[in-house]
Design a protein that fits this description.
This protein is mostly beta strands. The chain contains 3 helices and 12 strands; from the N terminus they run H-E-E-E-E-E-E-E-E-H-E-E-E-E-H.
Length: 281
C-alpha cells in the first residue's frame, strides 16, 4: 500500500451482462467454511478462503508483496500499483490457501499459480486512479474448504456503505513503527466514511491523489490496512450471508491516521470493464 507524504474510470451502466463463469460461481462464492475469530486477533486457517498472496518465489521460499482476491477459477483481483514499483521485481506468483507465510506446519495446503497475464483499466501512477488489476492464472483453481472465490458486488452498485463496518484482511504491517509485515493474515473492521470529506483531506497531500466516486474511504484512526496489505480485499457481509469484495486496498498517508482514512478502489465502479475481461480470458 503506497504511503503518501503530507504537504506543508469507469461509471456503472444500468445494463448488466450475465457472465457465465461468474454466474455459475454464485453458489460457491462468499461462504467460508471455517468460523472466524473477531477482534483483531490472528484469523483461523481458511477463514477468508478467497484471500490470495501475490509475490515471487525466491529459491524454495515464497515472498509475498501484496494481497489479492480470488474471484473465479482463473482470476485474482489486486491493485495495479503492486506491479508499478521500479525498485522491485514484479510479482510472478499467486498463492492461494496460505496462512502462515513462514511455516509449513500450520495445516494450510497452499496452491501456487503462475501469473500468465494481467489486465488493467489504465493505472495512473501520479493520481493513483484506476488502481485495479486482474491477474490471469496459468491453470484453473481447484476449490476446496479453504480455497473459494469471493462474490462480486453486482447488486451493490447503489450502496455507498456509509457508516458500515467493512473488513480488511492481509499480511501487512501491524504497527506504524515497524516495517515488518505479519506472517499470518490479520483482519480489521473499518468504518466507511464520507468520500467528499476524504477527498478534501487528500487535497492537503503534496501529490494530491484523486479520491472520487470510484473509491471507498474507510478507517478512523484505530484500525486500518497498512504496508503489505496492498491489493487485498475490503469485504462486505451481505444480507444473504455471503461476503462480497467491494474494495481493493490502494493508498493512504501512513497507517491508521484519523485525518487520512484508507482509500480503496471501489469494485462496483469497474464491473462493466471487468466483465468482458473475465469473459475473454
Amino acid at each position: 500500500m503506497p504511503r503518501l507524504l503530507p504537504a506543508a474510470g469507469a461509471s456503472p451502466s444500468a445494463r448488466r451482462r450475465q457472465l457465465p463463469q461468474a454466474t455459475h460461481l454464485q453458489a460457491e462464492c462468499g461462504r467460508p467454511s471455517i468460523p472466524r475469530v473477531i477482534g483483531g486477533e490472528e484469523i483461523a486457517v481458511g477463514s477468508w478462503p478467497w484471500l490470495a498472496a501475490v509475490g515471487t518465489l525466491q529459491g524454495q521460499s515464497f515472498v509475498s508483496s501484496c494481497g489479492g482476491t480470488l474471484i473465479t477459477r482463473r482470476h485474482v483481483l489486486t491493485a495495479s500499483h503492486c506491479f508499478d514499483d521500479p525498485r522491485f521485481v514484479d510479482p510472478t506468483v499467486v498463492r492461494l490457501g496460505e496462512h502462515d507465510l513462514t511455516s509449513r506446519t500450520d495445516n494450510a495446503r497452499p496452491q501456487d499459480f503462475r501469473i500468465a497475464g494481467r489486465r488493467s483499466p489504465g493505472y495512473n501512477r501520479r493520481s493513483h486512479e484506476n488502481d485495479f488489476e486482474i491477474l490471469i492464472l496459468d491453470a484453473n483453481v481447484a476449490f476446496n474448504e479453504v480455497i473459494r472465490p469471493a462474490c462480486l458486488p453486482f447488486d451493490l452498485r447503489n450502496n455507498d456503505f456509509r457508516n458500515t463496518d467493512l473488513t480488511v484482511i492481509g499480511w501487512g504491517r501491524t504497527s506504524t513503527t515497524s516495517l515488518r509485515t505479519s506472517s499470518v493474515p490479520m483482519q480489521a473492521d473499518v468504518p466507511v466514511v464520507d468520500t467528499a470529506s476524504c477527498s478534501r483531506a487528500y487535497q492537503r497531500v503534496e501529490s494530491k491523489p484523486v479520491v472520487d466516486q470510484r473509491h471507498l474511504c474507510a478507517g478512523k484512526g484505530t484500525t486500518d490496512s497498512c504496508g503489505g496489505d496492498s491489493g487485498g480485499p475490503l469485504n462486505y457481509l451481505g444480507r444473504d450471508g455471503r461476503y462480497y469484495v467491494v474494495g481493493v486496498v490502494s493508498f493512504a498517508v501512513d497507517c491508521a491516521r484519523p485525518e487520512f482514512p484508507g482509500v480503496y478502489t471501489r469494485v462496483t465502479s469497474y464491473l462493466d470493464w471487468l466483465l468482458p475481461v473475465l469473459e475473454s480470458t
